[in-house]
Amino acid sequence: MVSPRVGPGPLAVLCGPTATGKSAIAVPLAERLGAEIVAADSRTVYRGMDIGTAKPPPALRVRVPHHLIDVADPREIVTAAEFQRLARAAIDGIRRRGRLPLIVGGTGFYIRAVTDGCAFPPVPPDRDLRARLEAEARTYGPVALHARLAALDPASAAAIHPHNVRRVVRALEIALHTGAPRPLVAPGDGAPVVMVGLVMERAALYRRIAARVHAQLAAGLVDETRRLLAEGVPLDRPSMQGLGYKEIASWLRGERGYDEAVRVLIRNTRQYAKRQLTWFRREPRLHWVDVTGAATDEVVARVHGIMDRELRAMKEA
């Protein structure tokens, strides 16, 4: 089943790897464009998870409305299909107010779910099948499970990292139940879109990642993780599998030392940034802006120039 179109009117997207400064420029950019922000992030949807998810600070969120932040309890599982539904409802509301929807984030699959009309077949969870597939991943490794998905549904496999076991399992669940690959994109679906991606020289990005991790720790990431565990949020929930929480939780549970947990967090964040860049580089519509060493005002002006030009062209077409 193909999901309905987003609706009339253009969309703007600001994306890129973690720590490239998307949140810092999103608000002044939105102010210039007359936009409201829809957060496309698989972790900022969860309440009470502020530091580890690097949510935009309240001062920025007051200046411009932000949507899809703090919409779910961390014990819940927000699927891509649920995110798509929530995002489309938010976009409809933004358009009714005469504003431009500006999608901001680093979760490429969530962005594509909105811009391209990804189809999510209504396959209910099969817990027995999931348990068997997860056992396969533990026994033979996630790469072997991913290879099984690639044989059944090459398109989905290409969009999912081999180590993202939860998503591989769900894609296999759909493929095995429906007997056919699911279309990731419905041809001709979606609204006109202008997309800008932020990119940064690798050494500079890695320095920013390390600095942000240490800033998160100074801001109370350990206490935030400890509180979530004390509130009974299971470690296997997607919320707790986000960067920061799983590494700090491993220290709190005595599985590794503090310094090692921090090193692993920095390493995992670097690897995540590389995977994000790989995903976004497959997107031919992206206009890339190199932000290495650039001031915030300069980046805002450059991104606004691209988006304003493209949006005007859409109106004139």
Task: Describe the model.
Mean pLDDT is 89; it is low at 1-6 and 183-189. The chain has 317 residues and is an alpha/beta fold. The chain has 13 helices and 6 strands. The longest helix is centred in the last third of the chain and has 24 residues, at 258-281. Helices cover 53% and strands 9% of the residues. It has a 6-stranded parallel beta sheet, with helices on both faces. Helix 6 (142-152) packs parallel to helix 8. Helix 2 (58-63) links the parallel strand 2 (35-39) and strand 3 (66-67). It has 2 domains: 11-119 and 192-316, P-loop containing nucleotide triphosphate hydrolases (Rossmann fold); 127-178, Histone, subunit A (Orthogonal Bundle), CATH 1.10.20. It has helices at 22-33, 58-63, 80-96, 108-115, 127-140, 142-152, 154-159, 165-178, 202-219, 221-230, 245-252, 258-281, 296-316; strands at residues 11-15, 35-39, 66-67, 100-105, 193-199, 286-290. 38% of the residues are buried.
